[in-house]
Amino acid sequence: MLGPDACAMVKPICDMEEMLLDMLKNTEFVMLIDESTVRDNEALLLAYVCFINQNEEVVEELFTRNLTNTKGSSMHKRVEEFFQEKHSSNKYTCLCS
Fold this sequence. Notes:
Elements: H1 4-25, E1 29-39, E2 42-53, E3 56-67, H2 72-85, E4 93-96
Parallel strand pairs: 1-4
Antiparallel strand pairs: 1-2, 2-3
């Protein structure tokens, strides 16, 4: 369990994710995803979003998730799972590198 000090440090991070997801609900955005093998064949999926906010281009990391393999279908499934977990029905365009 986290103590009060640790909880106070973690809370703003959760709030930032919520703020980003709320912003994306009313904004057109493009998602960039990339997979990376870090060690011992451990693969990660990195997802970023690009959008315009107050006439400024914004690029933010949306999430990082573990992958069991690097197939396109597995990456797409992890993206779908993220939006389901967050109860978001966002429509998105996805660019893979």
